[in-house]
Amino acid sequence: xxxxxxxxxxxxxxxxxxxxxxxxxxxxxxxxxxxxxxxxxxxxxxxxxxxxxxxxxxxxxxxxxxxxxxxxxxxxxxxxxxxxxxxxxxxxxxxxxxxxxxxxxxxxxxxxxxxxxxxxxxxxxxxxxxxxxxxxxxxxxxxxxxxxxxxxxxxxxxxxxxxxxxxxxxxxxxxxxxxxxxxxxxxxxxxxxxxxxxxxxxxxxxxxxxxxxxxxxxxxxxxxxxxxxxxxxxxxxxxxxxxxxxxxxxxxxxxxxxxxxxxxxxxxxxxxxxxxxxxxxxxxxxxxxxxxxxxxxxxxxxxxxxxxxxxxxxxxxxxxxxxxxxxxxxxxxxxxxxxxxxxxxxxxxxxxxxxxxxxxxxxxxxxxxxxxxxxxxxxxxxxxxxxxxxxxxxxxxxxxxxxxxxxxxxxxxxxxxxxxxxxxxxxxxxxxxxxxxxxxxxxxxxxxxxxxxxxxxxxxxxxxxxxxxxxxxxxxxxxxxxxxxxxxxxxxxxxxxxxxxxxxxxxxxxxxxxxxxxxxxxxxxxxxxxxxxxxxxxxxxxxxxxxxxxxxxxxxxxxxxxxxxxxxxxxxxxxxxxxxxxxxxxxxxxxxxxxxxxxxxxxxxxxxxxxxxxxxxxxxxxxxxxxxxxxxxxxxxxxxxxxxxxxxxxxxxxxxxxxxxxxxxxxxxxxxxxxxxxxxxxxxxxxxxxxxxxxxxxxxxxxxxxxxxxxxxxxxxxxxxxxxxxxxxxxxxxxxxxxxxxxxxxxxxxxxxx
Length: 754
Description:
Elements: E1 15-17, E2 27-32, H1 42-55, E3 64-67, H2 71-82, E4 87-91, H3 97-106, E5 109-112, H4 121-135, H5 149-152, H6 155-165, E6 170-174, H7 179-191, E7 196-202, E8 237-241, H8 243-257, H9 263-277, E9 284-289, H10 302-305, E10 323-324, E11 335-338, E12 346-350, H11 356-367, E13 371-376, H12 385-388, E14 391-394, H13 400-411, E15 416-420, H14 427-437, H15 444-451, H16 453-462, E16 470-473, H17 479-486, E17 490-494, E18 504-506, H18 509-520, E19 535-539, E20 545-553, E21 556-567, E22 575-580, H19 586-603, E23 608-617, E24 620-627, H20 635-643, H21 647-656, E25 669-675, E26 681-687, H22 689-693, E27 698-703, E28 710-711, E29 722-728, H23 731-744, E30 746-751
């Protein structure tokens, strides 16, 4: 076939029938994407670059910057430099010398990171990429993991398969960015709705419900991050192979089929042969083989090249058959799980919080093999909801009968795996719905005892758990007696709000009475729900603030860790910073965990997450609040890089009855500082964000407040304007990074007119 340029020659790859053991009439093919000039991602590079040039996002001669350790880098080198663009590749020390030589010879500038980030090599590469983008005006970042042109590039591959075969019954592909398998299968499913789509991943990759192991040796598949280009709704089954199993399969592919390929192809070959051996007569299977083996001679092929007798003599002990597991179960060797593409179990969400975490919970449910259904009063409340693709049911979520009827109609005869919410305000409603539908959840009575802070106080008192003295007030005239009972100074707060909303330190009876009168005059909370009509007057305990991040697993309340909290100056109690884990003596941390555990047992919680706020007094830990949910204040985003535990994912698992994994993968420190205004007025700007983000150890700098918004010194959590998160090997390193980042930031406020 004649082509006018090397770029036009991309694609049109061979389709080869493999000789493998299989029942009569079973056909097994390999699509040799490795026959592209460099590899399969030549297709992606051509699609992404040409589309960016067509749309004007990539100007003539502008630089291209991408993070890649292999084939995407080579594809961009081919297409980008051919079309006159400087190409900068960010990679890590795992890059093989052959690929490095190719990139440099083609004219690329290669930037190699020196150490892993908090989420492995990928996050370190992305940090360096961000720095390069700042210094290269007009640079284009293809973003292979989220660019929709990545999967779109494989429509041509699907068309080639149809042209060559007519029909396809099973397609098997490795999963890294998600583009090749999802792009190919999406196009094929339009023609063949009964197509079986099988993904192949690495043990130690997070893509399909497994914990991250950054030291895994496979390349080209697996990931430490969740790419946007994986559409989990397309995949029927996933297989995981260990490094040794993948490498042995790759050598077997060369030995048995004479295809000298990389470990992605080898992994696909191992799964393809297993499926073929168990296929029904007449089944036609295709495996996508992404790249050649020349860059793996010192890794995958090292054992075979040093064998003194035959390659078989040096093969490590590897599984010859996969073990079937429940999706979400921890795997260590070749295993597989089915993920129903149709009729997935439903996970019902009753409303959501209004941050990105709420929408992330919906996509997390999809990734875990569930179909989320969100019940809301007003869908417009949730920014980004449309992008999740979640089914939305509009109903009165505060009316138990209406909500249950809507849930039963939405579920039909489908399996309901669980009910949950990411909103403090709908914990009781979600639990009551779960009880009505007969699915496992915390008792609604336990959630009610946490949501109503006065009920919490009464329950803890009955169980002898240390807490402040308290009095309940339903009329401002009762405040004086309440203050006499608890003493001054005191704290006056609503019993049914969240996020330090309207919590006030009071130094005298008049201030306490005024605050109580103000709170009792409120008839509806921020979600429009009827207020409880009760105010708490509490003893003000002195001592530093902490929180115990708890999670029920196997009938036990596990303490994931203790968070050290920094709060604003009195009279308010707004969280202005956190450090995880807290710097505490072991016995003190254990005492806090024990106090938190006893408080959860007292109120009757027995499932999922809880966030218990504590003060460390001279007499020991005392419970301030019990939140029957994940911590707010971005604390889960500190726990993840510090320990590797994704608490949001664990919440979804707990709600759906999936296996939990609360074992820490690492032991680091993480901290957050919130951006606040020093004076009242309107936000004019937050300056220095890029400089702050470039500080070593800083994971992210996020501004959440829009320019022009009214601001004030913090009185409640909603007054915070953004945050800085840093990660390090210890609290001193984290603190230094946060201090340095904040020194670069300036919150500019246009003062209120006098």
